[in-house]
Input
Amino acid sequence: MVTPERWRRIAQVVESRQPGVVVLEDVHDPHNAAAVLRSCDAFGIQTVHFVFREVTPYNPVKVGKVSSSSANQWLDFVIHHSTDGCFRSLEQEGYQSIATVISAKGESLFQADLTAGPWAIWFGNEHRGLSEEAIDRASRRVAIPMRGMVESLNISVTAAIFLFEMTRQRSVQGMPRLPQDQMTKLMESFGASGDATPPPC
Output
């Protein structure tokens, strides 16, 4: 039985979900991916697309429980085996893609307007970054400005910074919400572990 307090918590989380998805292309270490999932849940991103082109596929629901702090239980996942297939799927759903790149190849994250969208934000392999195909096909290329000798951050740190900045900008402008039908489905999904009938108002 889902208690009224639990339903209020579920409703609060669902109402805080924001339009947009994250795409992880060829992320090798499941623990790195799981850490990104933790940030997705924290900043209200519900759906994560995984592209397995060259790395061995893994199930995001079953890996990285510690790294994700069980955030993977509350997210939705879509698996692709080609970058092209992922782009086609996202385009059909009306998403514009942002490729995360190094500073020399993109606009500054702190000058980029991330309030519109809905955006699909792409993050690449820990060593190689995004594929050239992903970078070329993205609508925009955005980078985190860096001041050190090494122009590199862990993927989970990069994702957290991007999602924080997008959420900050949207909060200032008025945070967009998911369509009502999506929120209704999430309410049912989040409450499915018990009696999924909400208590009377």
